[in-house]
């Protein structure tokens, strides 16, 4: 007999609590090529995903696959170094599973990073974009299926998925550090193909400033669970461009690595303000 979602979550959470007695305040999800924030964390425990019951395992280059528990800027954190994607063959519910585990461990705030393609003329590779809203119509909602009332309401409000309070704090942090941040709407797609030129134009036409293959399903589950969310994209490629060059995952990882120090500084300083 298969276990219910809540039974699975309880087993995963119990396994972690046997190893780690503290309650983290902040959850952090690190995207493609952005895993080195973990060097800033005073790690107290690192658990491979493979050691956790019911936990998916990341299969993508640039996603290491560990949960890191420790402190960042004096706050107890749990960090996903490596995330899961719908295109890997996981269900949207599996993609969102770690967010629900982190909520059950005690977090009240979720910080998310990702690598994204820019659709607007105002972007250049390496820009950091605060996500102020998202478009989820091009991927599959992580709340489909039976609702677990213990996790959240059947019909969660999505008028403010990204906390205006956290966005204001991040802008203040960036100003203090002398960083120029962009702000825009993130469009979630299934992947794994990069978008065609026509698709980039469509996404721009419906209001998307950046596009990527993650984040949206995680954020929906986080909002469902009552978490405050802040998310930031590293613009790693430009979809609407004149030249005929193709986009590769290696180039995305390289661009993310170049932008990583700024993103790391913002997340570290923002954690101190939460």
What features would you describe in this structure?
By secondary structure, the chain is an alpha/beta fold. It has a single domain (5-273), classed as Rossmann fold, CATH 3.40.50. It contains six helices and nine strands, in the order αββββαββαβαβαβα. It has helices spanning 5-19, 92-105, 164-177, 197-205, 216-224, 249-273, and strands at residues 26-30, 42-48, 66-72, 75-81, 109-118, 128-138, 182-189, 210-212, 228-238. The protein has a five-stranded mixed barrel, surrounded by four helices. Strand 6 (128-138), helix 3 (164-177) and strand 7 form a beta-alpha-beta unit. The longest helix is centred in the C-terminal third of the chain and has 25 residues, at 249-273. The radius of gyration is 18 Å and the shape is globular. The mean pLDDT is 91.
Which structural traits does this protein have?
single chain; 274 residues; alpha/beta; Rossmann fold; 5-stranded mixed beta barrel; globular
